[in-house]
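We examine the record.
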Amino acid sequence: MNTDKKQLYETITTKDICYLRIPDFERSGRIHHAITTRHNNLGRRNSWIKSPGDWHAVADAFGIVPDRIITVNQVHGETIARVDAQGWISGAVNINPRTVEADAIITNAPGIAIGVETADCVPVLLLDPEIPAVAAIHAGWRSTVRKIVDKTVVRMSEEFRSRPQRMLAAIGPAIGAECYEVDEPVMGPVREAFSHWEEITTPRSKGRWGLDLVKANARELLKMGLLEENVHTVGLCTACCKDLFYSFRAEGRTGRMLSIIMIRT
């Protein structure tokens, strides 16, 4: 595996926003994307409460109005929401997308920025540059064992005729196996979901394991037919890099990063 390729990213600062970007995504010429950092307190929560204004600065940097950034109410499940050109969840007209419970969003609508919020869980962005079509996925351990990335690839194939072989994936910063220690209530579902569970876990003492959620999701993308050279991993641990990212495991209640992608108009 070409690990240098997988960890290729660049840091961009624009309009006082510091974010990460995967160069191969931008080379397609079809999308804008960003993985925000905590620089200048972006994503900080007042009393840990989500605010409608949290991502106004990101909208400004993307050159869109804030209501064109679509997020959903993430519940660590496997539901996938499709967003239309008006910014509504497909089949849910006049319902605020932020109240819809889902952990993945897909769209083929230009000018709509879809995103997921994380502070240790794995953010995954998908791009089919030919259609074009995009997805944003929130994969904590529960969504990971429910195969949310697999189901999102399938859903994009069904909805947009996307082909995995031409998709690109970006796996953003998440808690690493060195910092993410779990016990049997988590390991039981992991063993059941993955026949290769020993390859994504590291035994620790007293019935505990280190769990590599990034590797688990990367393997699922390859299993679904994405090419290895098209799966890009930032490779930064949120708990180890608290100067750059928020980490629920390391800090407790804290802010969030936004991983966002938008088809250019």
About this structure: The first strand starts at residue 10 and ends at 14. Residues 1-7 have pLDDT under 50 and may be disordered. Residues 183 and 208 are 5 Å apart (CA to CA). The radius of gyration is 17 Å.
